[in-house]
Amino acid sequence: MGSSEYERKIASRFAGFDQDGNGFIDREDFSGAAKALIDEFGVTARSDKGQAVYIGAEAFWQGMAGIADVDGDQRVSRQEFVTGAVKRLADNPVRFAEIARPFLRAVLALADEDGNGVTLQAAERVLRTLNVPADVAAKAAAALDSEHDGRISEDETLAAFAAYYTTPEV
Ligand code: CA
Ligand code: CA
Description:
Elements: H1 3-17, E1 24-26, H2 27-40, H3 48-68, E2 75-77, H4 78-91, H5 93-98, H6 101-111, E3 118-119, H7 120-129, H8 134-144, E4 151-152, H9 154-164
Helix pairs in contact: 1-4, 2-3, 3-6, 7-8
Bound molecules: calcium ion (2 copies).
């Protein structure tokens, strides 16, 4: 895998973060994702689960900005994402995934509607809410369940997140 191919893969992840498609990753992409998720699962922003999702999204944004917003204009351009993310990912993919952990944890709690763990269907709903195409969401949800117990754990999610941003395969 050449470095240019690697950068291309990372660039393809940019769209996943740029939720509103305006060409930049910024705070609104994260708060917008948080709002879409709590609406999807029918909780309010003031509820414990809702607050956790918003707080996690803000922490995720801050971590992303800290890594990639080189010029400090409070938004991450495609070039900043490719340059900043590629370097950090190469240095330490697990550390990169850790910036997402509070958000992922809050979203898993949100999606765990019956308190017995996150089902594949709930994971799929999360992904579709984040604008992942339906067919991709279904495959991704199934792939997340690496322990094949029908439920998605935090460790599985974090491992998948790190892998998604570091492996050449989509
Ligand atoms: Ca955006
Ligand atoms: Ca910037």
